[in-house]
Amino acid sequence: MNPSTEPIAVVPERLPWRHTFISLRVHNYRLFAASNFIAVIAVWMQRISQDWIVLQLSGSVAAVGVTVAMQFTPVLLLGPWGGLMADRFSKRRLLQMCQATAGLCAATLAFLALTHSLQVWHVYAIAVVLGLVTVLDQPSRQVFVNELVGPQYLRNAISMNSTIFQLGGLIGPAVAGALLSAVGGGSAFVFNAVACTLTVVMLSLLRVDDLHTAPPTPKSKGMLREAVRYAWAKPTIRWPWVLAGAVAVFALSLPVLLAGYADHVFGIGASGYGLLNTLVALGSLTGAVASARRRLLRLRTVVFGAGLYGALLALASFMPSLPVFGALMAVSGFCALTFLTSANQLVQTSANMAIRGRVMSLYTMVLMGGQALGGPMLGGLAQLWGTRWALLLGGTVPAVVAGLLALWLRGKHEE
């Protein structure tokens, strides 16, 4: 079997259902997961409220795309630096600093919204600050999971994180949509500020002696070049990178287009926008639970998930019926999470601990930085061509890239 497609065995036998969430047996991870669940709900509430407020203030889907660009451009430009920090310093301390800053940003948005002073440029400015926070937060958070549970439960904990994120994505948009219709978006920002404070407190309560802390990597010349060479030499890291780039640029800024569908195509308002995001999260939650029970990590699973996700978005683009469109969004959420979780697991388990922070920062740079390009691009295309044509393009490109990669890997396998 070709090493680029050879499955990685991660558990000796299929897990019984009672072990689906086995990483929650670890005290530190259980505490982290509980506060993270609240934080994810709050982040989704802020994201939905922020995007809808920008759409209402500007009347432009393109402006929503600019918000995405503002938040993810710092990751595109500075992502590797965040990985260096994660390899060299305490991940717990970095996360505390990041969450404290994110809480201040949420509190600022809340004050401006509740005093009816919020303008689009305020959202843009705070999005940039949150992007700078993400530069440090994401690689630190990715590697910190291993410190919480150790290598034995790492894969399960990654799947648990995805499950928590999608369950939060199931609840957060629905709550945000209801709040937007009832009292406005300010309350969502207040909730996020409180959730960030809770996360800082939780990180202080962890049992430090139980953490599987790796020795910090000493500073040396060429650390980023070393990480790039290391990652590119491994097909199980290289190809998820390539697919992550295609999916991130063209298909991960889906909320931007869903805002257009809710407002311009189906006319279902803020609560409908929250509902569409909830349907995507419902499918994603199912995919996250399925990933927690997967026995083998295969590159082909990553490729198939990316390809099918793109194909479903393209299929949904011109669906005239809201129920059918919503159903396709739910199934696309399952495929997106299959891709994202499998890719994350494959990259993490393929990287040595001493270099994992840098590898994950590069992966995050592609995944989130791609949205900095894709958000305004898709928003602009939706404004120029219409939302349906923008979604068609957004789905077709990753489907074609995944299909071409599948054919290439099949040819290599038959050599």
Automatic annotation (TrEMBL):
Residues that span the membrane, as ranges: 28-45, 57-82, 94-114, 120-136, 164-183, 189-206, 239-262, 268-290, 302-319, 325-347, 359-377, 389-409
Domain Major facilitator superfamily (MFS) profile residues, every copy: 28-414
Keywords: Cell membrane, Membrane, Transmembrane, Transmembrane helix, Transport
Subcellular location: Cell membrane
Protein name: MFS transporter
Entry keyword annotation includes Cell membrane: yes
Topology versus the membrane: Multi-pass membrane protein
InterPro entries: MFS_dom (IPR020846), MFS_trans_sf (IPR036259), TM_effector (IPR010290)
Superkingdom of source: Bacteria
Keyword check for Oxidoreductase: no
